[in-house]
């Protein structure tokens, strides 16, 4: 049922193309408030699709649209940045599609005890710096599954569901959020580089980890809490009951 609806949404976005059920496969089965991740592949398209259709109704009506919106806006703000996909579209309020990146997540490489050249991590560091210059923090780069080593050996960042613009926050919190992203770079560098992590970067990672242990939110849950509260307030203010009261004031 969900798959046929998803194919219909794809066809609505690209009406000239015939989408086949055989091209659709599940990459990751979402649970509860997590999206199901699909891959659609045929002669023309190779897409990753995140979809919340399976989630409980209150997730579909509250946090799912916020997660999809956050990911869409994050990708839009980083368009034309090497290391972030350029082609993406919102299929519905609770589904998004973007180009599949052929490669291997750093988490998988770490489990296989593989190594990458230092130049990969220098490029990764530059990519994160470019993202920050665009005013965006990812907030989940310490999760090595969100960084892909592409077939040509370049870093790609995925999963911008937690990405936000940091300008609205106090300066001390902006520094912490940017530090969370950069510590993800150095964590990957430490685990996967053929050569040891340069001392200055190792000191940075050590100091950030020390602070992070005493930080109650630890980066990513800041975004979760922010989105949750925003969604709840939005739904309350848009409810018929509240509108009827406001109309009488």
TrEMBL record:
SUPFAM superfamilies: Protein kinase-like (PK-like). This is non-specific serine/threonine protein kinase. It is an enzyme of class 2 (transferase). It comes from the Bacteria. The keyword ATP-binding applies. Keywords: ATP-binding, Kinase, Nucleotide-binding, Serine/threonine-protein kinase, Transferase. Residues 60-192 form the RIO-type domain. It catalyses: L-seryl-[protein] + ATP = O-phospho-L-seryl-[protein] + ADP + H(+); L-threonyl-[protein] + ATP = O-phospho-L-threonyl-[protein] + ADP + H(+). InterPro entries: Kinase-like_dom_sf, RIO_dom. It comes from Pseudoalteromonas shioyasakiensis. Its EC number is 2.7.11.1. One of its GO terms (molecular function) is protein serine/threonine kinase activity.
């Amino acid at each position: 049922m969900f798959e046929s609806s998803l194919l219909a949404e794809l066809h609505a976005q690209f009406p000239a193309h015939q989408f086949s059920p055989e091209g659709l496969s599940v990459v990751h089965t979402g649970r509860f408030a997590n999206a199901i991740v699909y891959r659609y592949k045929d002669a023309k398209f190779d897409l990753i699709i995140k979809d919340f259709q399976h989630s409980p109704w209150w997730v579909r009506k509250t946090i799912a649209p916020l997660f999809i919106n956050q990911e869409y806006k994050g990708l839009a703000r980083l368009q034309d940045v090497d290391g972030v996909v350029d082609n993406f579209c919102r299929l519905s309020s609770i589904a998004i599609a973007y180009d599949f990146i052929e490669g291997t997540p750093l988490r998988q490489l770490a489990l296989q005890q593989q190594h990458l050249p230092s130049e990969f991590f220098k490029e990764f560091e530059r990519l994160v710096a470019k993202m920050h210059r665009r005013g965006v923090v990812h907030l989940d780069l310490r999760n090595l599954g969100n960084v892909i080593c592409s077939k040509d050996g370049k870093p790609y960042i995925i999963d911008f569901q937690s990405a936000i613009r940091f300008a609205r926050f106090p300066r001390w919190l902006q520094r912490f959020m940017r530090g969370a992203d950069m510590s993800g770079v150095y964590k990957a560098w430490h685990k996967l580089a053929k050569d040891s992590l340069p001392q200055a970067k190792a000191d940075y990672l050590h100091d950030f980890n020390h602070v992070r242990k005493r930080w109650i939110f630890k980066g990513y849950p800041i975004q979760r809490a922010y989105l949750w509260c925003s969604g709840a307030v939005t739904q309350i203010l848009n409810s018929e009951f509240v509108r009827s009261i406001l109309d009488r004031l």
